[in-house]
Specification:
Elements (H helix, E strand, L loop, with lengths): L1 E5 L2 E4 L4 E8 L7 E7 L6 E6 L5 E3 L7 E6 L4 E6 L8 E12 L3 E4 L8 E6 L1
Parallel strand pairs: 2-11
Antiparallel strand pairs: 1-3, 3-8, 4-5, 4-9, 5-6, 7-8, 9-10, 9-11
């Protein structure tokens, strides 16, 4: 699986950014796709996941502000980020192969990570 993430950058608090993750080498439409973020010294955290059937899961911190949607024809998942806050500053990673575990929730495949894209939100 090859993933190409794009769309990171600088934004002011209250602003918008869109992250995109384009996949190749996988049957994209059959996979759950997700975005995670990571800040220095912390573990990578789930931001949003969309299942192959369109079921959405969001972290509480982004509910109502971020929207994840997928374009199966373009093998791309987009994370629309609105009303950005300084605490959204992080490196964002996409994963194109998550599975849902009944005990721990969404589990990303170690082989399906894209390169990170930095989002910096200033107040």
């Amino acid at each position: 699986v090859q993933l190409q993430a794009s769309g990171g950058g600088d934004a002011q608090a209250g602003g918008d950014l869109r992250l995109s993750c384009r996949a190749s080498g996988t049957t994209f439409r059959t996979k759950a796709v997700g975005w995670y973020h990571q800040t220095p010294g912390k573990q990578r955290e789930l931001v949003a996941v969309i299942s192959s059937g369109g079921l959405l899961t969001y972290a509480d911190s982004v509910k109502g502000r971020f929207t994840l949607f997928r374009d199966n024809f373009g093998n791309t998942a987009h994370l629309q980020m609105a009303d950005l806050r300084p605490e959204d500053t992080a490196i964002y990673y996409c994963n194109a192969d998550l599975r849902l575990d009944s005990k721990v929730g969404w589990v990303p495949s170690a082989d399906a990570w894209g390169q990170g894209t930095l989002v910096t939100v200033s107040s």
